[in-house]
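Exercise 7b. Backbone tokens:
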């Protein structure tokens, strides 16, 4: 369908359906299997398989959004209606901020290693009731290699995130400048013939052309942002041990699922009879 800023059908329904199905699979299939691997003496192969299952499900989400991105859909992907009000503050160019991923990882490490020896022993004894030793001690005294790799991942994000934001600002400035230029040119050209209003000066065709250029750049920015998110998730999983990767993915899934549960619980508490 040709691009038109003024006559586009909103594709929100199919994206809402996709995200609902994706979230349901994450909540009812992937996450329970991963938790089962963490809370029992599951074999290394079972744990590895469930880590891979969750990772592939997360990557599938971003790949699907990338395939769906085009000049007609990008406004709805950047400002997704399938995200609730609790999730919105954590969004960066349409999805979770990359910084959240490493912050989550560091919080797991810091929480485990800031405990005193006595507190840690008590915490460990309680955890051992339901968790194998390798799970309960996964974040204790992380290796120098892991800490160095996290620093490298964060360094890459500190370079990439400002670049993406700068590209977004330039695309927006370019759109406004082009529409303004067309408006001024039309106004000057038609001034001697008849009064020109903003509506007749900035014609739908000229605005569409300016918007199309911006939307194509926004598609590129959106895909690059998703590439960064995927890269960070996969780099973290690749840098951690199997048990650490499982705990990280569980925490990330709990974070994503938690917003849905919180909103549902809040809505259930509202008395709609008034």
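Sequence design result:
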């Amino acid at each position: 369908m040709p691009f038109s800023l003024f006559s586009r059908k909103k594709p929100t329904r199919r994206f809402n359906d996709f995200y609902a199905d994706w979230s349901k699979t994450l909540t009812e299939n992937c996450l329970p299997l991963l938790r089962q691997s963490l809370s029992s003496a599951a074999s290394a192969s079972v744990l590895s398989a469930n880590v891979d299952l969750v990772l592939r499900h997360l990557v599938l989400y971003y790949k699907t959004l990338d395939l769906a991105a085009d000049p007609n859909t990008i406004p709805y992907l950047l400002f997704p209606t399938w995200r609730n009000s609790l999730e919105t503050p954590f969004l960066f160019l349409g999805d979770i901020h990359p910084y959240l991923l490493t912050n989550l990882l560091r919080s797991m490490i810091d929480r485990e290693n800031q405990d005193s020896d006595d507190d840690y022993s008590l915490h460990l004894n309680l955890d051992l009731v339901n968790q194998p030793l390798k799970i309960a001690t996964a974040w204790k005294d992380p290796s120098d290699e892991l800490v160095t790799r996290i620093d490298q991942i964060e360094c890459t994000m500190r370079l990439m995130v400002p670049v993406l934001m700068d590209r977004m600002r330039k695309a927006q400035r370019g759109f406004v400048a082009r529409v303004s230029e067309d408006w001024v040119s039309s106004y000057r050209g038609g001034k001697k013939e008849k009064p020109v209003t903003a509506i007749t000066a900035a014609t739908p065709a000229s605005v569409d052309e300016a918007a199309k250029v911006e939307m194509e750049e926004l598609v590129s920015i959106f895909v690059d942002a998703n590439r960064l998110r995927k890269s960070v998730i996969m780099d973290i999983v690749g840098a951690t041990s199997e048990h650490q990767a499982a705990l990280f993915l569980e925490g990330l899934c709990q974070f994503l699922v938690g917003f849905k549960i919180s909103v549902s619980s809040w809505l259930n508490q509202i008395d709609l009879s008034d």
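Instructor comment: Residues 12-267 form one domain. The first strand starts at residue 91 and ends at 92.
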